[in-house]
Predict the 3D structure of the following.
Amino acid sequence: MKKITLFLVVLTIVLFATLSFKNICRAAEVTKINESKGQISINEGKDAGFIFDAKVCFSSSSSEELICGKVLRTTASYAIVKIKNRRETKKIDIGAEAVLCVGNEDEE
């Protein structure tokens, strides 16, 4: 019994260490763009990890540039992301992918 307990403890530590050093990324889709306010609505919310103040990045339609913002409002099924430079919202298309990565900040 002690060997099984020890095995489970070691397994838990290994799994925790593995998850803490990798980024976990979630994707959503742009559903609405409000250029005047610099806000982008996406089709995922709290249930997918898009919580208040989380950093979300979008790929621009015109280049390989990443445009990032922070979640301003969120519900279980959608979130609104605020882009700091609202002119950059013109570079994002409806249907574009929004990516949220949670994990080791040193890898960015």
